[in-house]
Each structure stands twice: as C-alpha cells, then as structure tokens.
Amino acid sequence: MTAIYDINHVTTYRYEAPVATARCALRLTPRGDFGQRVVQSRIDVTPAPQSMSERIDFFGNGVAEATILTPHTRLRVALSARIEVVRGPFPAAALTPAWEDTRRAAAAESLAALSPTHFLFASRLAPLNAAVADYVRKSFTPARPMLDAALEVMTRIHDDFDYDPVATQVTTPLAEAFARRGGVCQDFAHIMISGLRGIGLPAAYVSGYIRTIPAPGEARLEGADASHAWVAVWCGAEFGWLHLDPTNALPVGEDHIIAAMGRDYADVSPIDGVVLSSGGQKLEVSVDVRPLPAGAAAAAGDTRRARA
C-alpha cells in the first residue's frame, strides 16, 4: 500500500540581540530509503544565506549547510516536501532470531554506515545506565525472539511513562527522564536505546514525522504537531532494522516518515549550528503532515532543492 504526504516544517528563532553571523546544519529532508521516495523537497532560509551546500553524512542523512552573514534578529527555516511511502507488513515477531543470537551477530557485522556495530555502544545522549538496562532486560527472557522482546519493551515504555511536554527539556539527562517516568518522544527513544545497548543489542535513534490527520476512526498520534522520534532495532541480517515507536506503542508503518537516523538526537537534530550573538532566544516550531490521494506523486518528478 502506498501513502503520499505533503510536509511543511517551519522553525523560527527570535533573538534578543542581533545575530552577526550564523552557520546552520539542517537535517530536515526525509531520507530516500527504508521504503520512502522523495518526490520533491525545498528548504527556504530567511535571511538569505551567503552560501548553501548539500551533503550526505556518514549515516546517509541529507544535510543542507547554510552560512548567514547578514545581521538579523529572526531566523526562519522552512521545509516543504512531498514524500511517497511504501512499506510492507511487519514480520511475524516469532520468526526473528533469538535475541542472544542477534547480539552475537551484531558484533561480527561490517563497519558500513548502517552496520549494527555502530549502534552497540554508549553515545553522548544515550549513555549506559544500569537501572534502564535492568528495566529492559526483564523482557529478554532466554531464547525469546528478538522482535517479540523489543515489541514488549516498546509497549511497556508506552504504558509506564507519561507523555508530558513540560516534564523534560532537550537537555534533560536520560537518567532524570527515566526516574520521572515522563517526557516526550526524544526521552522515550533514548531510554529504549540505552536499555537495549545496555544488554548488548544494537539500537538507533530515528527522527522524522507522523501524519497530522488521523485516519477515520483512529486517535490522533502523540507528537503529530512537531518532529517525532522513535527507535530502530536490528533484528539480524535477514530482517535488518525494524522501527518501533514507543511514544505511541506502534511498529513504524506508513504513518511515519523517516528524516534521519543516528546514534542519538545529537546525530540527527533537525537544526544545529553556531550563532555569533548575545542574549537569549525564543524558538517556534510548526509541523504539518497531510496525506494526499495515491495519484498525487505522479504529478511531480523527483526533485530536491535547498535555497534561500
């Protein structure tokens, strides 16, 4: 089944004092793999950058880099994109290998960009934590199929933790979010990743979007008004990376659009960079993901643009 989405993601920074210069790295355009095709995309930056370039980072994420030399008190970054998503059914959990076999296989994989080897160890925002590892370990009974256990962890996090946008901030340590049993999608993803790595299993952080308008009769998904985050779990060479959303207790399907993948949020933050200024700043983010009729993709070719 095919799903097509128009995405509009607008980020606005307002500064107390003028910014003399800024250098930004933008990871906004969705990936063109994992069952996705970028039909068209465009990034607009105001004020206009003096230079703007595009590259692919180590993990295969698209990065637009902008250098702004015009003094400003307001920075606006807007993504507009059309994405086609085609994903098959999730595999039966019982068919995936025992988690102990997955753990052994992960260490023997290559060093390619998305090799599970890169996602076995502690990272800056997903440090190892004994309490978190113990929490996850309860689901990994001897010889249990990898996906079956991971699905249970996903559901337990959803049931045990409260979605609370004011409970944490982007800088809240993982241990604090775990102790509070509350937070947002970023916290839940980091907790699940830390716990899986704590028992020797590879897990990756995924940023992206979920549809704003739910299907008829379905509840609105948490995180639909902002960029979203979830976890990719490696389930052996045959099954590869399977994506799980602990915020909504859902295997990732056609309602999710993958933007970037890395070890934690620091690898995939939608907007990162350095500004030369003093004083504080205010951030506003608006995300709209709208499903379109299945024939919409045919109206446009595969084009990508990053511009001022």
What does this structure look like?
This protein has 308 residues and is α+β, with helices and mostly antiparallel strands. It folds into 2 domains: 2-86 and 269-298, Immunoglobulin-like, CATH 2.60.40; 93-267, C8orf32 fold (Roll). Helices cover 19% and strands 39% of the residues. The protein has 6 helices and 16 strands. It has helices at 99-107, 130-137, 146-160, 174-180, 185-198, 265-268, and strands spanning 2-19, 21-26, 36-46, 51-56, 62-68, 72-86, 162-163, 182-183, 203-210, 228-234, 241-245, 250-251, 256-262, 271-276, 281-292, 303-307. The strands form 4 sheets. Strands 15-1-6-3-16 form a 5-stranded mixed β-sheet, with no helix packed on it. Strands 12-11-10-9-13 form a 5-stranded antiparallel β-sheet. The longest helix is centred in the middle third of the chain and has 15 residues, at 146-160. It starts with a strand and ends with a strand.
List the helices and strands and how they pair.
Layout: E1 2-19, E2 21-26, E3 36-46, E4 51-56, E5 62-68, E6 72-86, H1 99-107, H2 130-137, H3 146-160, E7 162-163, H4 174-180, E8 182-183, H5 185-198, E9 203-210, E10 228-234, E11 241-245, E12 250-251, E13 256-262, H6 265-268, E14 271-276, E15 281-292, E16 303-307
Parallel strand pairs: 3-16, 7-8
Antiparallel strand pairs: 1-6, 1-15, 2-5, 2-14, 3-6, 4-5, 9-10, 9-13, 10-11, 11-12
Helix pairs in contact: 2-5, 4-5
Shape: globular
Rg, alpha carbons: 20 Å
Total number of helices: 6
Q: N- to C-terminal separation? A: 35 Å
Strand tally is 16
| Number of structurally distinct domains | 2
CATH topology of the largest domain: C8orf32 fold
What structural category do the secondary elements indicate? alpha+beta
Specify the CATH class of the largest domain: Alpha Beta
Strand order in space, largest sheet: 15-1-6-3-16
Helix content: 10-25%
